[in-house]
Amino acid sequence: PHSTFAADGSLNTAVIAQQAQHLIDAGCHGAFVGGSTGEWPSLNIAEREAILRAWSDAVCDTDLRVIGHVGHHCLSDAQQLAKLCESLDGVSGIASLVPSFFKPQGLSGIIKWCAKNFYP
């Protein structure tokens, strides 16, 4: 499938339905969106929201599960992305990086941080 980015660097969300179908045809059960190739820090919130919406639309009538990466260096932006994922029928879950400066300590610290910031 074609890239989510056009030659000029702009988003090409029209190809996301093709990407989803490619994964389904290949026997995949899920897609990790917005984080696996490391492009998320280069995208603004509107672009990340557009990608999440396009993936949700592409999988709404399929069994393909989408996990949306919502991690961000700005907590309120991460929370905004998490709320969007919660509202989208095609998104089954979220994933996030923990803070890179004031890091939670250990697994229990990470769990507490996620619970506090994404599911208050």
Q: Helical stretch count?
A: 4
Helix content: 40-55%
What spatial order of strands do you see in the largest sheet? 1-2-3
Count the strands?
3
Radius of gyration using CA atoms only: 15 Å
Outline, from the CA principal axes? globular
Mean model confidence by pLDDT: 89
How is the main sheet built?
A: 3 strands, parallel
Structural class, from secondary structure content? mainly alpha
User: Helix and strand string, N-terminal first?
Assistant: HEHEHEH
Distance between the termini: 39 Å
β-strand percent reads 5-15%
Low-confidence stretches: none
Describe the structure.
The chain has 120 residues and is mainly alpha-helical. Helices cover 42% and strands 10% of the residues. The chain has helices at residues 16-25, 45-59, 75-87, 106-118, and strands spanning 30-33, 65-69, 93-95. The model has no long low-confidence stretch (mean pLDDT 89).
Give short descriptive properties of this protein.
120 residues, mainly alpha, three-stranded parallel sheet, 10% strand, globular
